[in-house]
Specification:
Belongs to the SEC15 family. InterPro entries: EXOC6/Sec15, EXOC6/Sec15_C, EXOC6/Sec15_C_dom1, EXOC6_Sec15_N, EXOC6PINT-1/Sec15/Tip20_C_dom2. 28% of the residues are buried. The chain has helices at residues 3-13, 20-27, 33-42, 45-69, 71-151, 155-169, 176-246, 262-265, 271-282, 286-304, 313-337, 344-368, 372-390, 397-405, 407-428, 439-445, 469-488, 497-521, 527-555, 559-562, 570-598, 617-636, 639-662, 671-694, 711-721, 731-737, 743-752, 766-788, and strands at residues 435-436, 462-463. The protein contains 28 helices and 2 strands. It has 4 domains: 24-139; 175-239 and 265-394, no CATH class; 407-585, Tetracycline Repressor, domain 2 (Orthogonal Bundle); 604-757 and 772-787, Orthogonal Bundle (Tetracycline Repressor, domain 2), CATH 1.10.357. Strands 1-2 form a two-stranded antiparallel ribbon.
Length: 789
C-alpha cells in the first residue's frame, strides 16, 4: 500500500534529473548491478551517484512523513512494549526458578540419559559390527564354498561362486583389508582354475591321440563290415540272376535289416574339452582356448602325418591312416557337440591340409611300388578310409583321384606278374593231355571255367583235350579279373566294367597270346606240342566267354548286357587268329617230319626194270606217322582243325611226290619205278579215304576230301602210266583227267621218263610193241610240250 504513494510523490516532484528506470528497479528491489556496470561503462558514475543520493533523500522525506502520520500508534506500541518487558522479566524469573527446580530434579536423570546415550552408541556400534561380521561371514562362506568346489574339481560352481562374490558382496565388504585380500585372491583363483582345466585338457590331448588309432580302426572296421554286407548282397543277387537265367529252382527273396548304432561303438571321452571350453567361456577368454585347442590339435595332426622311416609303408600304412581317421572323427564330434569351439571352415581347412599331405604320400609311395598286391592292399585300405570319412561329411575326392590315377600303374604291375606266372606255366608244361582221376579235379579244372565239351559228367579217369597249363592260366586270368575289380571298385567310379574289360583284353592279347606266340615261334617245339598248343588256344578262346561273364558279374553288370552282339572280348578274335598261327606251325613241323620220310624216296630204284612187289619203305614210315598225327588230332582238335591238318599234310605229300620226279637227283626213271610210286599212292589214297570216313570228316560236307589232296600226284602217275600220254594236250581230256598238272612240270618230268632198255630179242615180243606205242605217244607229248613252251 505504500508503493502507490511513493510513485505519486515521485510523479508529483517531477524531477527531470532522476532516471525512472532506476527508481523502478529500486522500488521493486531489483538488482542494480547491471545499471551500475552500465554507468561505469559509459564513464558516468558520478551521475549515477548523484541520482542515488537524490533518491535516498526523497526516501528519507517519505519516511519522515510516514512516521508523522503514525506517531500516535507508535507511542501506543512503545507502551505496550514496556508492558511486555515487565511481563518478560516476571516470566524470566519464573523460568529461572523452574529451571533450578528442574535441574535439581533432572540431574539424576541426566546421568541416566548419558548412560542411555552411551548404551545407544554401543548398540549402534554392535549393530554395525554385526552387520559387518554378517557380510564378512557371508563372503567367507562363499570363499569356503569356492575353495570346496575347487578342491572337488567343480570349477564351474567355483566360478559361479566367485561371480557372486565379485558382483554381489565384494563392494559391500566394510573391512577394507579383508576386501583387498579378497580382491587380490580372485584373479589368482581364476588363474588357478584356468591352469587346472588346461592341465586336464593337456591330459586329454595325450589320451585322445592314443585313442585315435583305436577309434579309426573301429570306424574303418565298420566300413569294412558294411562293404562285406554289400558284397554278400551282390553275390546273392548274382546267384538269383543265374538261377533266373537257368530256370533252376525258385528264388527266395529276404530282407535283412540290421540296426547298428555306430556312435555307440565309437565311445570316447570329450568331457575335458567341453569343460575346458565352458570354463574359458565363463572366464571370458573363450577365444584364447579356441586358439590353444586348434594349435595343439594341429601339432598332433602334423605328427600323425609324418611317415615312419623305420618301417616300410606297406607295414605302416594302416596305422598311418587309422590314426588320421580317428583324428578327424574326433574333430567331427567336437564340431557337432562342443558348442562353437570349432567352426566348419576350420575343420575343412585342416582336412584340406591333411588330404594334400596324404595324396602327396600316396603318389610318392605308389611311384616306388613294384608289386601289384602291395598297391592293391594300400588302395583297399584307402578306399575304406574314404568310405569311413565320407560318412562324417569329409570330401575324399582327391584321395580317390590319386587311386584312379594309379590305375594304369597297378594294372601294369599286375600284367607283369601275370606275364611271369604264365611264362613259368608254359615253360613247365609238357604239353600232354591232362588226366583227371577224380570228380573234384574235373570240377576244379574244367567246370569252374566253363571249358567242358559236354554237359554230361564223364567217366574217370578223364583225359582232357588240353594240357595242364590251360586251367592254370584260367586261374591266373580269373585272379587278374578279381584283382582288377577289387582295385577299380569302391573308388567312386560307378561303372567300371568297360575298364575291366579293357585290361582283360590287354592281359589276354599282350600277355597270354604273346606268350603263346613266343612259344610257337621259339622253334623248340615238336609236332605233338604244337598240336597241343593249338588245342589249348581253342579251349582258351572258349574260356573268353567265361572270363567276360565273370568280369560282368563282379562289376554288377547284367548278363544280358554281356550276351549282346559285338560285346565280346577282342582277345577272342586274336586267339582265333593265333590258332591259325599254331596250325601253320603244326603243319610246318608235320611237313618237316614228312620231308624226312619223303627224303627216303632217294632210295627208290628209279631205273628198275620190273615193278616192285611191295610198297616202298618210305611210304610205310609216312603212313605210320600220319596215323599217329590223325589219331592225336582226333583226340584234342576239332573236326574242322583236323580237316585242315589232314588237307595240309596230304597236299604236302602230293607235292613231295611230284617234287621227287622233278628232283635233280633223279636223272631218269622207268615205268617200273612209276608203278612202284603208283602202289605207294594207292596206299595213301586208301588211308585218306578210310580216315576221312572213320573220323566223321565226311559229315562236314567239305568240297575237298583227303583223297582230293593227292590229286596232283595221282594225275601225274596216271599220265605216266597212260598208254596215250599225248592226250594230255587235248584240252577236254586234260581238263577232265589232268587238270591239277602244270605244263612246265609235266614237260620236265616227261623229259626224264625213259622206258626199260631193250633186251635181247625184246623187239619181237608183244610187250615191245606196246612199249613202242607208249614211247611214240610219249615222244609226241614231249615234242608238243616243247612247242607249247
Amino acid at each position: 500500500m505504500s508503493a502507490i504513494p511513493k510513485k505519486k510523490t515521485l510523479a508529483e516532484n517531477g524531477d527531470k534529473g532522476i532516471d525512472i528506470g532506476l527508481v523502478t528497479a529500486i522500488t521493486n528491489g531489483e538488482d542494480l548491478g547491471p545499471i551500475v556496470r552500465h554507468a561505469f561503462e559509459l564513464g558516468k558514475p558520478e551521475a549515477l551517484t548523484h541520482q542515488l543520493r537524490t533518491i535516498a533523500k526523497k526516501k528519507e522525506v517519505e519516511i519522515e512523513e510516514l512516521c508523522k502520520l503514525h506517531y500516535e500508534e507508535f507511542i501506543l506500541a512503545v507502551d505496550e512494549l514496556r508492558g511486555v518487558l515487565v511481563d518478560a522479566d516476571e516470566l524470566k524469573s519464573m523460568l529461572s526458578s523452574e529451571n533450578f527446580r528442574l535441574q535439581e530434579v533432572a540431574s539424576a536423570l541426566l546421568l541416566k540419559l548419558e548412560e542411555l546415550l552411551e548404551l545407544y552408541s554401543i548398540k549402534k556400534n554392535v549393530t554395525e559390527a554385526l552387520q559387518t561380521l554378517k557380510i564378512c561371514v557371508q563372503v567367507s562362506n562363499l570363499c569356503l564354498t569356492c575353495n570346496w568346489h575347487i578342491s572337488e574339481g567343480r570349477f564351474y560352481p567355483a566360478l559361479k561362486t566367485l561371480g557372486l562374490i565379485e558382483k554381489g558382496t565384494l563392494q559391500n565388504i566394510p573391512v577394507k583389508a579383508f576386501r583387498k585380500v579378497i580382491e587380490k585372491h580372485i584373479p589368482a583363483i581364476k588363474l588357478y582354475i584356468e591352469k587346472k582345466v588346461c592341465c586336464e585338457f593337456n591330459d586329454w590331448l595325450v589320451y585322445i591321440r592314443g585313442m585315435a588309432k583305436e577309434i579309426g580302426q573301429l570306424a574303418i572296421g565298420q566300413a569294412a563290415s558294411a562293404r562285406k554286407r554289400e558284397e554278400d548282397m551282390r553275390s546273392r543277387q548274382r546267384e538269383a540272376e543265374e538261377q533266373s537265367r537257368s530256370g533252376v529252382g525258385d528264388c527266395v527273396y529276404t530282407l535283412d535289416v540290421k540296426h547298428i548304432d555306430e556312435d555307440s561303438v565309437l565311445e570316447f571321452d570329450l568331457t575335458p574339452v567341453y569343460r575346458a571350453h565352458h570354463i574359458h567361456t565363463c572366464l571370458g577368454i573363450e577365444e584364447k582356448f579356441r586358439d590353444y585347442y586348434c594349435k595343439n590339435r594341429l601339432m598332433q595332426l602334423n605328427l600323425d602325418l609324418q611317415i615312419s622311416v623305420a618301417q616300410a609303408f606297406l607295414e605302416s600304412h594302416q596305422p598311418f591312416f587309422t590314426q588320421i581317421a580317428g583324428y578327424f572323427i574326433v574333430e567331427d564330434r567336437v564340431l557337432r557337440t562342443a558348442g562353437g569351439l570349432l567352426s566348419e571352415s576350420q575343420v575343412e581347412t585342416i582336412w584340406d591340409t591333411a588330404v594334400a599331405k596324404m595324396t602327396s604320400v600316396l603318389e610318392d609311395q605308389f611311384s616306388h611300388m613294384d608289386a601289384a598286391s602291395h598297391l592293391l592292399l594300400i588302395k583297399d585300405f584307402v578306399t575304406l578310409l574314404g568310405a569311413t570319412l565320407t560318412r562324417y561329411g569329409y570330401r575324399v575326392t582327391p584321395l580317390m583321384e590319386v587311386l584312379d590315377n594309379s590305375r594304369d600303374k597297378y594294372h601294369e604291375l599286375l600284367l607283369n606278374e601275370c606275364r611271369k606266372q604264365i611264362a613259368d606255366i608254359l615253360a613247365n608244361d609238357t604239353f600232354e593231355q591232362m588226366v583227371m582221376k577224380k570228380e573234384y579235379e574235373y570240377d576244379m579244372n574244367v567246370l569252374s571255367f566253363h571249358i567242358q565239351s559236354s554237359d554230361i559228367m564223364p567217366a574217370f579217369p578223364y583225359v582232357a583235350s588240353f594240357s595242364s597249363s590251360v586251367p592254370d592260366v584260367c586261374r591266373i586270368v580269373r585272379s587278374f579279373i578279381e584283382d582288377s575289380v577289387s582295385y577299380l571298385s569302391y573308388g567312386g567310379r560307378m561303372n567300371f566294367y568297360d575298364v575291366v574289360k579293357k585290361y582283360l583284353d590287354k592281359l589276354l592279347i599282350d600277355v597270354l597270346n604273346g606268350a603263346l606266340l613266343n612259344m610257337i615261334h621259339s622253334g623248340n617245339l615238336v609236332a605233338s606240342q604244337a598240336m597241343q598248343i593249338a588245342a589249348n588256344i581253342a579251349v582258351l578262346e572258349r574260356a573268353c566267354d567265361f572270363f567276360l561273364l565273370q568280369a560282368a558279374q563282379l562289376c554288377g553288370i547284367p548278363v544280358r548286357m554281356v550276351e549282346r552282339p559285338h560285346s565280346g572280348l577282342t582277345a577272342k578274335t586274336v586267339l582265333k587268329a593265333s590258332q591259325i598261327v599254331a596250325y601253320n606251325a603244326l603243319l610246318n613241323l608235320v611237313n618237316s617230319k614228312l620231308d624226312e620220310f619223303m627224303a627216303l624216296m632217294s632210295n627208290v630204284n628209279w631205273t628198275a626194270d620190273d615193278a616192285p612187289e611191295h610198297a616202298n619203305d618210305y611210304i610205310n614210315e609216312v603212313l605210320v606217322y600220319l596215323d599217329s598225327i590223325v589219331s592225336s588230332a582226333l583226340q584234342i582238335l576239332s573236326l574242322e582243325s583236323m580237316y585242315k591238318i589232314g588237307v595240309g599234310t596230304l597236299g604236302h605229300i602230293s607235292d613231295s611226290i611230284v617234287s621227287a620226279f622233278l628232283s635233280e637227283n633223279v636223272k631218269r626213271f622207268t615205268i617200273s619205278a612209276v608203278m612202284g610210286i603208283d602202289n605207294d599212292l594207292k596206299m595213301l589214297e586208301s588211308f585218306a579215304d578210310e580216315r576221312f570216313e572213320s573220323t566223321g570228316l565226311s559229315e562236314l560236307k567239305k568240297a575237298t576230301s583227303f583223297r582230293d589232296c593227292l590229286v596232283e600226284a595221282r594225275q601225274l602217275v596216271n599220265l605216266l602210266l597212260s598208254n596215250q600220254p599225248e592226250n594230255f594236250m587235248n584240252p577236254v581230256i586234260r581238263q577232265k583227267n589232268y587238270g591239277a598238272l602244270d605244263y612246265k612240270k609235266v614237260a620236265t618230268i616227261c623229259e626224264k621218263f625213259k622206258d626199260s632198255p631193250d633186251r635181247l630179242f625184246g623187239s619181237l615180243s608183244n610187250r615191245g610193241a606196246k612199249q613202242n606205242a607208249r614211247k611214240k605217244s610219249m615222244d609226241m607229248l614231249k615234242r608238243r610240250l616243247k612247242d607249247f613252251s
